[in-house]
Specification:
There is one protein chain. The chain is an alpha/beta fold. The two termini are about 50 Å apart. The protein has helices spanning about 5-15, 20-25, 30-45, 60-90, 100-115, 130-140, 205-215, 230-235, 285-290, and strands at about 50, 55-60, 90-100, 120-125, 145-150, 155-165, 165-170, 195, 220-225, 245, 255-260, 270-275. This is LysR family transcriptional regulator.
């Protein structure tokens, strides 16, 4: 096979028009330069340089090959540059997971930080609930997740606190909660229909709300169990019950929904984390974590 050294030698001779100057340019003597050119011609199966004259002349085959040879050298340098940048983590791809709620509050900021600080890193976005992100990180299909804080066994994963939020009450407007313009007690939900988080797919929220209600002696009726917060707010707007949602997601509420503060809920902040595989082989990950610090 032809080699890049052979191609580089040919281009130098073609551009310098002289074996001696080409050898000097390449910091080699003329004999090995000539051998590289001859080996290239044998490999190609065509004479590239006409040596029958005092001045170097390209044959028709040599002139045709010259443009492609330059492209080969540029392509090789580009490939090497990309490899170096990828090894340093400043170029490459990142599979990024996020929950709908975390995505609403944090994703635009994250994408701006990556665009400004790591413009050659391409994120591929995956909207997933926390449990699925944990699974995807474990099997290597996700590089970085933005999740709710999780009490699960997470051997092989690293976490970093990311942001916090607070809970508010989303209630059907006809209930009249908060009509006075002020906050309400959580006991206002006692015995009333509540759209609850799935115990399997939204375990963080389910367990948190269950603990809050027990601690405050409130016993709502669980009308529906759902996974996504935007679905929960849709059901609230349809009048199926109230819900406790992150304050940052209140903008998703419909015209038939009231968003009401409950001071007791400030004692239960919603924690979010960045999570990744400990010892990940993707060099981009460390750069991204630095950019999001």
């Amino acid at each position: 096979m032809l080699t890049l050294v052979q191609v580089e030698c040919f281009v130098a001779v073609a551009e310098e028009g002289h074996f001696g100057r080409a050898a000097e340019r390449l910091s080699m003597s003329q004999p090995p330069l000539s051998r590289h050119i001859q080996a290239l011609e044998r490999e190609i199966g065509a004479q590239l340089i006409d040596r029958s004259h005092r001045a170097i002349r390209m044959t028709a085959a040599g002139s045709a090959f010259l443009s492609e040879a330059r492209d080969l050298l540029r392509g090789a340098e580009s490939a090497a540059r990309i490899a170096r940048r990828t090894a340093r983590g400043v170029q490459g791809s990142l599979d990024l997971g996020f929950t709908s709620a975390v995505g609403r509050t944090a994703l635009p900021w994250v994408l701006r930080r990556l665009r400004d600080g790591l413009p050659d890193v391409t994120p591929t976005l995956h909207e997933m609930v926390t449990t699925r992100q944990i699974d995807a990180l474990g099997n290597g299909t996700l590089d970085l997740g933005m999740v709710r804080h999780t009490p699960f066994t997470t051997t092989g994963l690293s976490f970093r606190s990311f942001l916090t939020d607070t809970l508010v009450i989303a209630a059907p407007r006809q209930w009249g909660l908060g009509d006075g313009g002020g906050p309400v007690e959580l006991s206002a939900l006692d015995g009333r229909d509540l759209v609850m988080y799935s115990p399997d797919m939204s375990q963080y929220f389910h367990d948190m709300l269950s603990a809050i209600f027990i601690a405050r002696g409130v016993a709502p009726r669980y009308a529906q169990y759902v996974v996504q917060i935007h679905t929960m707010l849709t059901l609230v707007d349809a009048g199926l019950g109230a819900a406790l949602v992150p304050a940052s997601t209140a903008v998703w509420s419909g015209p038939n929904t009231s968003i009401v503060q409950a001071p007791e809920l400030e004692e239960f902040p919603i924690e979010s984390s960045l999570v990744w595989r400990t010892g990940s082989a993707n060099p981009v990950l460390a750069r991204v974590l630095d950019a999001l610090a």
